[in-house]
From TrEMBL:
A matching Pfam family: FA_synthesis
Protein name, UniProt field: Phosphate acyltransferase
SUPFAM superfamilies: Isocitrate/Isopropylmalate dehydrogenase-like
Enzyme class: transferase
EC number(s) reported in the record: 2.3.1.274
Subunit composition and interactions: Homodimer. Probably interacts with PlsY.
GO molecular function: phosphate:acyl-[acyl carrier protein] acyltransferase activity
GO biological process: fatty acid biosynthetic process; phospholipid biosynthetic process
Keyword check for Acetylation: no
Subcellular localization, as worded in the UniProt entry: Cytoplasm
Lineage summary: Bacteria, Pseudomonadati, Pseudomonadota, Betaproteobacteria, Nitrosomonadales
Coiled coil: none
Family: Belongs to the PlsX family.
Gene that this polypeptide is encoded by: plsX
Listed InterPro entries: FA_synthesis (IPR003664), Phospholipid_synth_PlsX-like (IPR012281)
Length: 345
């Protein structure tokens, strides 16, 4: 199925110099899809000229006169910039002119705008941010990664329902395992919210594995890890910081003297293979789950390759009908819960 994707061409640390080349590269791989570049026409046309590419039916330009700054307050962007490239790209999703939106812009502004314009799906109180991380076994989906710092047990259950559906849709796993991030695997561990969430998950139709600890994330113990946005964001940033530190240490050690430089050259094939395996750019693209539209957030500093990965993720979600799957799963869960409660009454 061919899809149409709205790209916030002005978003991110690098703007059009990354978003437009990435979109052009994407269309080379998926020529049947359509990209709508949303932003200031002069800036977009200038970048297209630099690439030697012309706009056409599969690569359209949609004008927007404003740009949301990376450090701008979400409410300021929401109320004061109704013609921003971010807002207009989301509007295209709402109107049905695009199947999904991709932006590398301000995360807070993107979430606030997407939630205001698209609204949440029935049965979902709050949208959550989900993304994939590499593991020893392949990859793991994790949410929430920062949208909700304070959550109830019910919210964590909703995150699990949405995340499980995402894994099923994108990885074609019919019954993915769900882990609840905690400070121990025992049922007695954790705060009251986590304990209550575990009870709700055990009573759901999800394949609940149980509590998982931080080291289980990269072991690949479960297909999905659920937590609140405060914990998820801390875990994500800690992981990024650790990876950068280890990479820096390796470079320092291999550059220490002539012998270590020679050792580095000999080990280069292994180092390159390792780098490809843990390349964070391949996992770029966080999904805003729970909205009535597909919105994928790229890392703000993403390069062309990483932003193209985010576009691919948005297209895949649209092609797999993820919104419909989440709606059906949540509706089924609420129906089953009502039946259970009526039976108890």
């Amino acid at each position: 199925m061919d899809v149409t994707l709205a790209i916030d061409a002005m978003g991110g640390d690098h703007g059009t110099t990354v978003t437009i080349p990435a979109a052009v590269e994407y269309l080379k791989q998926f020529p049947g899809d359509t990209i709508v570049l949303v932003g200031i026409p002069d800036a977009i046309e200038s970048e297209l000229r630099a690439l030697g590419v012309q706009a056409g039916p599969r690569l359209r330009i949609h004008a927007a006169s404003e740009v949301v700054g990376m450090d701008e307050q979400p409410q300021s962007a929401l109320r004061g910039k109704k013609d921003s490239s971010m807002r207009v790209a989301i509007d295209l999703v709402k109107s049905g002119e695009a199947s999904a939106c991709v932006s590398a812009g301000n995360t807070g502004a993107l979430m606030a705008t997407a939630r205001y314009v698209l609204k949440t799906l029935p049965g979902i109180d709050r949208p959550a941010i989900a993304s994939y991380l590499p593991t020893k076994k392949g990859q793991v989906c994790m949410l929430d990664l920062g949208a909700n710092t304070d959550c109830t047990a019910e919210h964590l259950l909703q995150f699990a329902l949405m995340g499980s559906t995402l894994v099923t849709a994108l990885e074609h796993k019919p019954n993915p395992t769900v882990g609840l991030l905690n400070i121990g695997s025992e049922d007695i561990k954790g705060n009251e919210v986590v304990k209550q969430a575990a009870e709700l998950l055990r009573g759901s139709d999800l394949n609940f594995y149980g509590n998982v600890e931080g080291n289980d994330i990269f072991k690949g113990t479960t297909d999905l890890v659920v937590c609140d946005g405060f914990v998820g964001n801390v875990a994500l940033k800690t992981t990024e910081g650790l990876a950068q530190m280890l990479g820096g240490f390796l470079k320092e050690e291999f550059k220490r003297n002539a012998f270590t430089k020679l050792a580095g050259l000999i080990a280069m094939p292994v180092l390159n293979a390792f780098k490809r395996r843990v390349d964070h750019r391949r996992y770029n693209g966080a999904s805003f789950l729970g909205l009535k539209g597909i919105v994928v957030k790229s890392h703000g500093s993403a390069d062309i390759f990483a932003f193209r990965c985010a576009i691919e993720k948005a297209a895949e979600e649209a092609r797999e009908g993820m919104l419909l799957h989440i709606s059906e799963h949540v509706e089924k869960w609420h129906h089953e819960r009502q039946k259970t409660e009526q039976g108890v009454a």
